[in-house]
Design a protein that fits this description.
Arc Repressor Mutant, 3 helices, mainly alpha, single chain, elongated
Length: about 80
């Protein structure tokens, strides 16, 4: 396994990491590993467009059509019929 050394970490950040690790029953080292794993996972998820993620998530219940991506489109107000 790889090792990572973090230098010049502010004391306040270190103290908050220690408190967070304590609350979760982890060592500070394990807490930092979890934070790093989650950060990388979040970046990987963000690389897949939302419409594609929705389609993957709901495929088992029959959603087999493409969901258009809305990035860059203007927001339109909702129109309620009377």
């Amino acid at each position: 396994m790889a090792q990572l050394v973090v230098r010049n970490l502010e004391e306040g950040v270190k103290a908050r990491l220690q408190r967070q690790a304590y609350r979760r029953g982890h060592s500070m080292e394990e807490e930092v590993r979890d934070i790093l794993r989650n950060a990388v996972r979040a970046e990987e998820r963000a690389a897949v467009p939302l419409g594609s993620r929705l389609r993957q998530r709901f495929a088992r219940i029959g959603l087999d059509e493409d969901i258009p991506e809305l990035h860059g489109q203007k927001a339109r107000p909702m129109v309620f019929e009377r």
